[in-house]
Amino acid sequence: MSFGDPNNPYGPPQGQGQGQQPGYGYPQQAPQGVPPQQGYGYPAAPPISPYGPGGYPQGPAKMPGMMTAARVLLFIIGGLQIVVGVIAAIAIGAASSAVDDSDAATGLAGLGFAIVAVLLAFAGLAIFLGVRFSKGGTAIRVITIIYASLMIVGSLGNFAQGEPSGVFGGVISLAISGVILASMIGSQASAWFNRPRY
After folding, report:
1. Residue spans per domain, the chain
2. C-alpha triplet 18, 21, 22: angle, nearest 5°
3. How far lies 8's CA from each of 15, 20, 81, 100, 131, in Å?
4. pLDDT of residue 111
């Protein structure tokens, strides 16, 4: 077998000269506009897609700043409500033991303890909502909006009493609940709570 033999598997294909064979001899230059190919190393990483599994948008990977602020405020409100509830329960218990056991005093003490129980329930709800912000969905967002709205109504009730302590507490409660409500109705909240969870 010679180099020009048409049956030679190691020879050039028929009709091509020795300098025109692709893949033989020294590397050929790539045509213009084609990047040079490298045969060694790791392959290039695939392009990053803004879509997650299933082709749906992933949404934000990290909790937005407004959501973090609302979460911290929920924890603060919950803690303050627990402190106020415990102090009120102690005061009601001390006042009811100091007075006689009349029906009116017992009824007022029962009403006071019922209000404390409602206050502690709201404190527990605030802390629960704050904990669920990281994994919660649309239901957590809706409940937080309702919670902030009820806090605004309570703050306006404090203003209606006209007492200096009620007005001061109403201003603080109104400011905190306003921030929580504003953060829940924004586009960041929609993107965060509607993000897919896998």
Report:
1. 65-193
2. 155
3. 14, 18, 92, 119, 76
4. 85
